[in-house]
User: Fold Spermidine/putrescine ABC transporter ATP-binding protein from Actinocatenispora rupis.
Amino acid sequence: MSLDATTSNRSAADPDQVLAVHGLVKRFGAVTAVDGLDLAQRRGTVLAVLGPNGAGKTTTIEICEGFQRPDAGDVRVLGHRPDARELRPRIGVMPQGGGAYPGVRAGEMLRLVASCARQPLDVDWLLGVLGLTDALRTPYKRLSGGQQQRLSLACAVVGRPELVFLDEPTAGLDPQARRLVWDLVRALRTDGVSVLLTTHLMDEAESLADDVVILDHGRVVATGTPAELTADATDEQRLGFRASPGLPLADLLTRLPGCTAEEPDPGRYVIRGPIGPREVSTVTAWCAERGVLAEELKVVRRSLEDVFLDLTGRELR
Assistant:
């Protein structure tokens, strides 16, 4: 898939940087939603911003898009302040709420957005790519949730932007539509377009992002590539398996010196420590003694979800 995107050569403070945020602060009454946040994105990359609900992700993105004003700090998008008139044709925005008029037909909405662009993508082609051709004459309010998401994405990219903001682009999508959006994001990057996305899906961030920023309570708590963030400095290995919930892990650990064990979700077990053939056979034999089959048994690396939970906690927000 190729979008044949075009990029501008207009000067910026740093031609390799499409987004620069320094000391950003945003308050809502007594609540500080964003607290001294720093953020940067390189041109032609996908940056994933992660965080629990209320961490400040959407507020930060809306400030970068020019929809909200910061209380303090400096924000530069493609070298301009977010409210600069000359910036508007150069960015694409996919908000969480969809951003379309309820009564407008899908085709009409996309053509309206395309008419504001200097060199828009072919509307019929884009509708076909995103599987919306059959919904061309359907009012927005009658589209399915997944169709609304895809139309919102189409509106964000139809103008051939240099930088696209995608706020949870695959929320509510089925697996097929989700993969389609992933392919489109990769195509944007291939064509030199920079993409900033927020997501609650850790596998999405690992699959798509060149760089990841994790926020918590309005501050950056970690940043790096997915590989850098998931690297385990202790070289600790993990053995994961599924079995009946509530197994007595304390008894298992008496046979696995130097290891720890937990059941992070009912029926999902993780053993950490020096994992070798002896440890694997010990786990399977221990399960067999209890008449339990250890399924999906595999040695696994630390995931981005593990990093996220370690940094932001496991309690609900």
